[in-house]
Amino acid sequence: MKKFLGSNKLKTAVFISGSGSNLKNLIKFSFSKKSPIKIVFVVSNNSKAKGLVFANKNKIHKKTFKFNNKTKDENEILRYLKKKDINLICLAGFMEILSKNFIKKFNGKILNIHPSLLPKYKGLNTHLRAIQNKEKFSGCTIHFVTSKLDSGKIIMQKKVKISKGDTPKKLSKKILKQEHNLYPKAILKLFSNS
Predict the structure, then answer these.
(1) What average pLDDT does this structure show over 40-56?
(2) Phi and psi (nearest 5°) for 155?
(3) 85-96 pLDDT, tens per residue?
């Protein structure tokens, strides 16, 4: 990973599918002096994703891809990433699985946030599964993306206590708060040491 200097921040793309609260948080973080990233591109697979509002508000170029033809769409995304000189991709609630070919092109430069303490509860419905299994804790994980789902090297994790009356929705809210703290911390950890 290359070192950044003042204005020479890492050009970053964020991939979203929904509310974009992590995107909003990353944009805010990117404006701080200590931040090593500058978000220049937002990709979504959902044209109605609420998170696209934050891209508009901050005048960040955005583009929606339907992923009806995965290979074609991924190739087009790669063209955009190259054109914009993107050095880092942050997945933030992106509900598409990227192909091996795509990941290989950006090897070691794609981060993801996952709402569980990996390697536990890879994939979907993490909160429900954690509650059903009577776990005492859940949490969130920032990890590198590899071609195996939710299996890349872990960068940072944050534990969250599961309380007695927690529903998947309540737990999701508690974990989301921690996600907002963790993503910037993990990025700082990666790039201030590089």
Answers:
(1) 97
(2) -95, -50
(3) 999 999 999 999
Please choose, from the candidates 42, 28, 34, the residue with its C-alpha nearest in 3D space to the C-alpha of residue 9: 34
Q: Which CATH architecture has domain 10-192?
A: 3-Layer(aba) Sandwich (3.40)
Q: How far apart are CA 48 and CA 37, in angstroms?
A: 26
Question: Would you kindly state where each structural domain of the chain is located, as residue ranges?
Answer: 10-192
**Residues contacting residue 7 through CB under 8 Å, at least 6 positions apart:** none
Cβ–Cβ contacts within 10 Å for residue 122, how many?
15
Q: Is the pLDDT of residue 5 over 80?
A: no
Q: Catalytic residues, which ones?
A: 114
Across all residues in the chain, what is the average pLDDT? 94
Q: How far is CA 154 from CA 122, 143, 186, in A?
A: 13, 4, 10
Q: Which helix (H) or strand (E) holds 56?
A: helix 52-57
**192: pLDDT strictly greater than 50:** yes
